[in-house]
Recover the amino acids of this structure.
């Protein structure tokens, strides 16, 4: 059963190894760290990291972020399997929080339809043991003229509706996110949001928004989702 969830974005700046001595968005890093630490306080038996990737599939829980994908000079231990960046950054957050328990690394393919994402979430929620979710998902990347995809006027309303659903604990609304529109707005987190919706389909969690902004023209949302009811 699901006991808690956290939603974090997956920008490379979460890896301190990539920013060196430069302090980049410390408030975002701290918010992601706090959301992850709250997951640990729920005392889960296992934490499932969910993130978008090229294809749906499970990854070896011992896998870690391949830093050389972002910084060719970064040293990576020989034989280390490289994760999709969303899962790798989620695994990194767990490591930084001191989590040494069991973990699941679940990728959701960018081309998966909403129904398949919801079903995947339902499967993650089925075990009898206590499961927590760490969902790594970026919003649109077209929030300003300097954004990776340049400005698209539709992005503000798109991201506002996602944030509204999270704030209200109305996760079912995330299943209505249009995959075509999400792709046009470069909102790579769409499959992961819908996995979250499936995992908590029958629940209405209380949400604490720890960060919301678009500092580089990409919408970043950090939230801690707790279950106050039975």
């Amino acid at each position: 059963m699901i006991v808690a969830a956290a939603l974090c974005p997956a920008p490379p700046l979460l890896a301190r190894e990539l920013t060196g001595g430069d302090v980049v968005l410390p408030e975002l890093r701290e918010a992601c760290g706090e959301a992850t630490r709250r997951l640990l306080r729920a005392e889960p038996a296992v934490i499932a990291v969910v993130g978008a990737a090229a294809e749906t599939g499970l990854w070896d829980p011992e896998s870690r972020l391949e830093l050389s994908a972002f910084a060719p000079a970064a040293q990576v231990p020989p034989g280390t399997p490289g994760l999709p960046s969303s899962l790798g950054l989620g695994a990194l957050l767990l490591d930084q929080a001191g989590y040494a328990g069991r973990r699941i690394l679940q990728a959701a393919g960018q081309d998966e339809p909403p129904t398949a994402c919801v079903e995947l979430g339902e499967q993650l929620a089925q075990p009898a043991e206590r499961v927590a979710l760490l969902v790594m998902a970026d919003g649109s990347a077209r929030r300003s003229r300097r954004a990776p995809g340049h400005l698209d006027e539709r992005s503000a309303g798109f991201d506002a509706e996602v944030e509204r659903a999270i704030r209200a604990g109305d996760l079912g609304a995330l299943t209505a996110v249009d995959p075509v529109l999400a792709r046009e707005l470069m909102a790579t987190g769409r499959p992961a949001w819908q996995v979250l919706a499936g995992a908590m389909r029958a629940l209405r969690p209380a949400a604490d928004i720890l960060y919301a902004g678009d500092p580089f023209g990409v919408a970043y949302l950090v939230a801690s989702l707790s279950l106050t009811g039975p």
